[in-house]
Amino acid sequence: FEHKSEKEIASWCVSEMVDDESDLLYDQGTLRRYNEHCGVWEEIPMSEIYKLVMSIDRAPIYMGQDRRTGRPKVKPLEVSNAMTESIAKLVCKQVEAPGSFSKSAPGIVFRNGFVRVTKEGPKVEPFSREHLAVTRIDYDFDHNAATPLMDGFLSDILIGVDAAAKLKFMWEFMGCSLSGLGTTMQRALLMQGEGANGKSTLLNVWIKLFPSNVVTSISPQDMHNEYRLAHLKKSLLNAVNEAPAANIAKSAALKAVITGDRVMGRHIRQDVFEYRPKAAHVFACNELPSFSDQ
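RESULT FIELD:
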């Protein structure tokens, strides 16, 4: 290194992490790198940057020329915890693009392409960084796939004179949740009832459709907590089995995450960030919760 500059070291870290800087983005409190082989922006843990910085401990730093001998003066770099954390923050600032992942294309990444949701129906496209997709389902997309078991199960639990309307809504809500369009429905699904009525089974099947890293379980009563909201930022499905019947004191926060309004989140010991939630919310409970600020 020519100078003992944290900015220079941060730029070196970026060059070590990607060949093209446009494949690295920091948004919503998360650093991501685009993987062209699977079509998604994968989350990068801060530990990857820490290890890079620690790997250059004792590296020679050019300190100018010796006036007496004319030879270059060098000094070993001394890496500290403070320097490591400072450089990690500089890396994030260098590739920061606020709001990028709020503009992701509506759709799902499968093994055989990105399936965009359009008014005319699903459309399969080649992988592209421009989709800004952060999740993937590890199956091939088959537009004509039959689902006899799921159809039969839903028909058994969605009964009554409005059974057809319930079935249509359920398929639509599940599809929106998978496509990152959960908040476009402007509502949450609350399944209430005691005994073996199928709600837990449905919720478990629903959860299994998603990669585990985009499923959360945050109760309605905790939606005002900024640390909980930080975890919700990458969620596509917030599913709570046996949701508590406790009073919901701040329903405005719950409404905001359901409708996709801007909210503030914070990870422990990190800065506050703003984002628009995308998760669909499904709550199963025996008793309905109450609200203080109706």
